[in-house]
From TrEMBL, chains A, B:
It comes from the Bacteria. PROSITE patterns: HTH_TETR_2. SUPFAM superfamilies: Homeodomain-like, Tetracyclin repressor-like, C-terminal domain. Residues 5-65 form the HTH tetR-type domain. Gene3D superfamilies: Homeodomain-like, Tetracycline Repressor, domain 2. This is TetR/AcrR family transcriptional regulator. Residues 28-47 bind DNA. Keywords: DNA-binding, Transcription, Transcription regulation. It comes from Streptomyces spinosisporus.
Amino acid sequence: MPRAGLTPHRIVAVAADLADEVGFEKVTLSGVARRVGVKDASLYAHVRSLQDLRTRMALLAGGEMIDRIAAAVAGRAGKDALVAFAGAYREFALRRPGRYAATQIRIDQALVVDSPVMRRTAEITYGMLRAYGLEEPDLTDAVRLLRSTFHGYCALEAAGGFGAPRDVQRSWDKAVDALHITLMHWPREETDHDD
Amino acid sequence: MPRAGLTPHRIVAVAADLADEVGFEKVTLSGVARRVGVKDASLYAHVRSLQDLRTRMALLAGGEMIDRIAAAVAGRAGKDALVAFAGAYREFALRRPGRYAATQIRIDQALVVDSPVMRRTAEITYGMLRAYGLEEPDLTDAVRLLRSTFHGYCALEAAGGFGAPRDVQRSWDKAVDALHITLMHWPREETDHDD
DNA sequence: GGCGAAAACCTAGGAGATCTAGGTTTATGC
DNA sequence: GCATAAACCTAGATCTCCTAGGTTTTCGCC
């Protein structure tokens, strides 16, 4: 019988595709093994556990996602950059739902802090906000608000949470508009006293 | 051996408590059975399946959550109401993480549409926005933005997604402030032409 | 109080999942 | 050409969901 030529990388790629089809949490080692034509026990030579596989999927998906966002934002600034960022974010979340779900799992902080993906993400996000002239701690607050809104919207939309007949793309455009306005009118921190 | 006195209600309550402790997705029928001192097969007399149990947990949690929010919002209007709503929302999400996760699962729409929980939620949410004088479709867009931000923030916070040393409560207050400002400056729809 | 029936709970077991231990086959470097 | 490491397998323990069918408790009713 010919060898399947497995590597950790190949297994994670197959798992990510499977996740986009059946959902991140429904990805099973047995399922991945079936898809690559191998017994489930064979995967353990390349991947420590299901937990380990999920962590690797998260890192892969995070990298892919920030790459697309970076490409969309490149060369833009201000509202243009915000709209491009938001559009790329939502498109990835909706077109690669399994990968997107992977990016949201809790990961050992030691693996993430100072990883290239994290650094790149912070770089692009804070760069996008430069045009609005915010300073710390307002910058961090603004980033948290953006992330929350983007993630919340995509999560609710993907879960079928928006039942009203109102067009979802239009609501999204409005939300991004609203965020832009918020960033323009940001309620800045009083730095003099610390209550 | 004495009977445990099971009812669907009791099982769902135990499952919800268990979810708050170990996480919604880690709730298992075997685990619930162990906790009430019964064999797992016995649960099937009261609950059709794990799926069924999860749906019931979602309905229970949704009712509990909207009750707390309603109590917080009662008698308030405008920004006051928004701050109270947001505070009650986040407190529930953080203190009852399993229940909160249950409210986010996808449910058969037939079970939800026109359910008391849904009606009540819509009533309170739209009532809270009355002070801002928005009309459809802006109203729906605003509700979607609020839900997205609240959910996204709580989901990221619960998942440990906010690593920066900046105080999370303060960022939240700022986010709610920002939402208030957004609602005041809402970019209203042009109803004359449909591009 | 006794009895019939429904409800509550049990045992037994299949199917599929994760993961370990240890064996066999294939590829590779010298 | 052969030793060895890597790739893959079988077997099996344990956990999960769920079904089928049996036993025991409870309760209304005569």
